[in-house]
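User: Can you help me understand a structure? I only have the sequence.
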Amino acid sequence: MTLDPETAKAAREAEGTAEQRRQVRKAALASTVGTTIEWYDYFLYGTAAALVFPDVFFPNSSHYVATLESFATYFVGFAARPIGAAIFGHWGDRIGRKATLIVTLVLMGVSTALIGFLPSAASWGSAAAICLIVLRVLQGVAVGGEWSGSVLLSMEWGDQKRRGLMGSWPQLGVACGLILGTALLTIFNSALTDDAFLSWGWRVPFMLSLLMVAIGLYIRLQILETPMFAKAVQQKRIRRTPVLEVIRSHPKEIVLSALIRMSEQMPFYVVTAFVLAYLTDDQHGYSNNFVLIGTLIAAGLEFFLVPYFGHLSDSVGRKRVYMTGAAITGLWGFVYFAMLDSGLSWLVFLALCLGLIPHAMQYGPQASLIAESFPTSLRYGGAGLGYQLASVVAGGPAALVATWLIHEFGSGYAVAVYMLLPR
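Assistant: Let's start by predicting it. Here is the structure, written out as tokens:
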């Protein structure tokens, strides 16, 4: 199965024309909006896993055990991401980026909205937690197929001399999704009593995912397939089993892509998910809103820094920017937890606000750094597998391991050492 000939022809004819420039803008917008929706859904779950799900779905466990159980459901979404990368990587390199991305968007939106309608453990008992896990797996599969397609949509339409900048636009979805998800939960948490928020207030942002999906679909349906993929169709370079072929022909690139991601991904989920539970526990006692607003500001800073570092990588080199960010992140963990445990509210809040700056240094050039390692006909599957494999050993267990480390060692520096390991 290959790309529809008329679609392929339209994409080829758009090259070098005013239509191409319009498509470049549309592709950048569609990629950013699409990843924003996907990550809004994903981060919404992470925030709820730290602040809401222990009480809603695991009420019969102690706070520590309920937090572990909640973060365990968080982890299964990460474990499912390489599966999504393989499934959608196959179809993305067979039928095209656009059609595949529409499917991932719908899958993510529907599974997220259903979480908002899911009865609590008080009504369904253990069945509620089981359904939560199933929906979380579907989220993971969707995100696993979304990232590489969005990056390729933007990169393959854009100026090939500015791939760092073009690849950074879909990366903005992380900052935008974090801003939207955190902002909505902050608003509902502020406007409602604790009981109302735990009863129904947290559900509304999940249900709003359906509205966001409708907006995303409208935008994505306006774009053409990328010219680079259209050329691959024309030249009959479409592979029958692209994922198997990229595993056979580019195993080194896949493994290296996963390894370079670990230094960025694991600290990110410590800063955006674990810290919510860490600072609102009995020992620290900060309010949900205090932590959420600090995280919101951090995401706002990252919104501007991700494209800046992507652009910078076009000038000074991707590896130089990425490795500098990795080194700073390793040292930042110790400074970060020293500030969080200082007992000074203003210093804790400052740490929250600055928490994602080192991450932006890596995340800006990361998309182009990984995608450039694979040929066009195998790029969706290869880049997706490399990117998502890190989720199983780095991003997924991060909040779970950090919670255990605090319980065992009683110090944030234990988590800082953990953040240092993947350098």
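Now, to help you interpret it: The first helix runs from residue 5 to 14. The two ends are 42 Å apart (CA to CA). Let me know which part you'd like to focus on.
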